[in-house]
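Quick one before lunch.
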Amino acid sequence: MTGISKEKTVKTTCPYCGVGCGVLATVREDGSVGIAGDPDHPANYGRLCSKGSALGETLSLEDRLLYPEIGGKRSDWDGALTLVAEKFSAAIREHGPDSVAFYVSGQILTEDYYVANKLMKGFIGSANIDTNSRLCMASSVAGHRRAFGSDTVAGAYEDLETCDLLVLVGSNLAWCHPVLFQRVEAAKANNPNMRVVVVDPRETATCAIADLHLALKPDTDVALFNGLLGFLSETEALDRTYIEAHTNGFEDAIQAAGACEINRISGETGLTPHDLATFYTMVARTEKTVTLYSQGVNQSVVGTDKVNAIINTHLATGRIGKPGMGPFSATGQPNAMGGREVGGLANMLAAHMAIENPDHRALVQSFWQSPTIASKQGLKAVDLFNATRNGKIKALWIMATNPVDSLPDADGVAEALEICPFVVVSDVTRAADTVAYADVLLPAAAWGEKDGTVTNSERRISRQKKFLDLPGDTRPDWWQLADVARRMGFEDAFHYDGPAAIFREHAALSNAGNNGSRDFDISALKDISPAAFDDLEPIQWPQPGTSVSNGETRFFAKGGFFRSDGKANFIAVSHKEPRKRERRYPLVLNTGRVRDHWHTMTRTGKTPRSSSHIAEPYAELHPDDAREAGIAAADLVEVKSPHGSAVVRAQITGRAQKGSVFVPMHWTDQVSSKGRIDAVVAPETDPVSGQPGSKFTPVAIRKLEFG
Ligand code: SF4
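Model of the iron/sulfur cluster complex:
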C-alpha cells in the first residue's frame, strides 16, 4: 500500500429533474462510482434525493447500445452516418425541408441541443425540431412570452425560502422536485410566519407541509385564479402604481375574470366558499407570495391560460422580481431550460429570439452564416407524429427520448414510426421501446461519459462532466449531429473540437447584434477557454451584478419587460368548463410521476432501489368509484379510453378525488405488460402552446376477471 488513493472525484450535475443538483461522482479503484451531493452547489448545498443518491447504481453496461446498427445489424459510424446524411438529403431534395424532423429531449445537453437546432433551422431550413420538453413546460414558455414578451423565469430558489406564502399549483414538489421540497420544508421550519398552500386535485405527499390543500376539480385553475384577481381588486390589494407604470391590459383582464362571486367560483372549482375565502385572504394579506407551478398547470388544453391567470395576479400586486415574490415555473427535466436558451423547440429561434421576427431571423442567419433560416414555426410534438403517421415526414431522427412510451396516444406514435420511411434513433440503452422502430440505431454517450452544460429551473448553468470512458463505439449526441451535418454538405459550420467550442458559439450568439431587448445574455462567456469551461462553476443568468432592466439586477422588479414599451401584458383569460365526460368514459385520468422513477425508467429501472418504493404501475381510485365499479384493493384493472388501454393494479384511497383516477407514467410494456398508460392518454393539446393535456383524459375502468 502506498497510501496514495487513485480515486478520482468529479463535480457534475444530476441528470434527472429540473432542480439541477450538483453531484460529486467518485470513481473508486475497483471501478465502482460513489455519489454524493455537492455541498458547494447552490441548487442543493449537498442534498440529494432518492433518485440522485442511486445514480451510481445505474451505470452498468447491461443493455447498452455500444455500436451503430443498420437494419438491426452491427455497423460502424462511417456506414451509419453516411446513410443518415443520404436519407435526410434525399428526402429534402424530393419533398422539401419540411419532410424531415428531429424529435429531441430535455435530457440532452445544451451543446447537443444547440447543434441540432442550428442544423435543422439554419441549414436544412425547417423548424421541424421539437422536444419532449413540449410535454413538460411549453405552456409556461407560451404564458411567459404572452405576458413578458420573453420566456423569462424571473425568480430563484431562494425566493421559495424567503417568501411568507408559497402557493404550489399542480406541483407534487415532494416527489417531482424533492430537493427543492427539502429546502422549502427547512425554510418553513425556520419561519413561523410561512404558509404553504397546495392546489392539486389529489392529496399528494406535498400536502404534508400544506397549511391549506385546495383539492379543486381538474382543469379549473383559471376559475380559481381569476377569482383571486377579482378578490384582490375588490379588497384594494392591488399595486395600482405598478399596474400603471409597468403593465398593459389590466382592465380587460379584470373584466374577463369577472367579479369575485365566491359561490359561483365554488361551483366551478368544487372548493368550499370557506376555503376559497381563506386562500384569497391569505394572498391579499401576504406581500411576499410566490406561486410555483408545474405540470398540473402546464399539461392541460388550457395550460397557457392557467399560466397567465397566475401571472396576472402577480402583475396586479407588483409581486414579481423582488425577493420572496413572483410566479415561478418549475421545469421537469434537467435541461428543459437549456433547450429554451438555444431555441430547441419548433416555435422558437435561438437565444430567446422569435422565429416570427424577420430581424431576429436575419440576425441568426448572419451569425451562423447559414444558407437559409426557417421562416415559420415547425411541427410541435403531437402534430409532428400525426404528420409522420400521415406520411408527411420521410426521415425522422429521435434523440434521447422514448415517444412510443411517453407521448399521448402512444399506439398511434408506434404506428407513425412504422409508416415513416426512415427512422434514426440515438439512445443509450435498448430499454426504450422506440429503439425497435429504428432503421439506424446510434449508440449515444451516457451520463458520466459526456461533457457539456445544463440549465436548471432558476436559470443556473452547471457543468455535466465526464468521469467514465466512452464504452464501445458510443459518441456524444453533438458529435453525431455535427458529423451528419458535414456529410450533408455543410462543411464549414459544424467543425467543433469539443463542447467548449459549441458553448462559446452559443454564448456569443446570446448577444449577437444585441440592442438590450432580450433577457438571455451569457456573452461574457463567449471566449471561455477549454480549461475554464472544464472548471466552470454553476452560474446563473443574468450574472450577479449585471443590470438587466431599469438598473435592477433582477428581472421585472421595476418593469423592464421585453416588449417595445417595456411593459408586461395582462392576458384576459376566461374559465372554460372542462370537457364533458361521456357515460362510457366517466372518470378523468391524470398521469404523473412517482418518487423514485424517472420518465420511462430507462435509467432508474437499472437499480432495484428505485423500485423498492413503488414496484408496479397502479391506478389511484377514490373508494366510491371503486365500489361502483366493483373493484377491490389490489385488483388488476383495465383503464381504457378511445385511444387505447392499460392494465394496472387498483389502489383505493381517499387521497384520490372522486371521479378521477391517477396512474403513473413510467412503466413501459417491456417492464410491465400493458402497463403503458400513455397508450390511453388523449392527444389533445393546448392551442397556444401545443402541450398535451396529459392530466385530463376521460376513461373507463373495469376489474379484470381471471379463471
Ligand atoms: Fe436529481 Fe432532482 Fe433529486 Fe436533485 S432533486 S438529486 S436534480 S432528481
